[in-house]
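Hi F.,

I've been meaning to write this up properly since the lab meeting, where we talked about keeping a consistent format for the predictions we share between groups. The idea is simple: the sequence comes first, exactly as it goes in, then the structure tokens exactly as they come out, then a line or two of notes. No screenshots and no reformatting. I'm using this chain as the first example so we have something concrete to point to.
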Amino acid sequence: MSKEAPFPDPKSKAESEEGTVFAPKFDAEGLVPVVATSAATGEVLMLAYMNEEALARTIETGEAYYWSRSRGRLWRKGEESGNSQRVVEMRTDCDQDAIWLKVEAVGIDAACHTGRRSCFYRAVPLGPAPGGGVSLRFVDAERQFDPETVYRHAGAAKGTLKSSE
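Output, unedited:
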């Protein structure tokens, strides 16, 4: 793919929904949401974002690339942890404004920077909340690796991969 606008603009709603031209719709920040699931189990692993370059590199290489909103840069999944994602299949939704990746884990089978298999390791209870507050419940939350060891800084397990400089 060329470095200049690798994806065409959608021509019409009908073409976007029923045609064969891949013309993803990026939001105002130039991003498209991406859901990554396990190709083996179907489990939702993570929600991330791609810009044009990340999407083009993912298609070209078969490895998952994303746009880090917190770091403001392109990143290849696993570039720090070694836990990358090989894309088995890529799909787009009906109006091409979201992407679904079916992936195989390469390295430790963990997609979350907290060391867990999935970023979705807490359940939100449904129904009336006792006392008016909603408390999350940990499910499938066993860590596959220690984020402080892998990322070499204490902030990793606290929700950030930014180095503490």
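Notes:
The helical segments are 13-18, 52-61, 147-151.
The radius of gyration is 18 Å.

If this format works for you, I'll send the rest the same way.

G.
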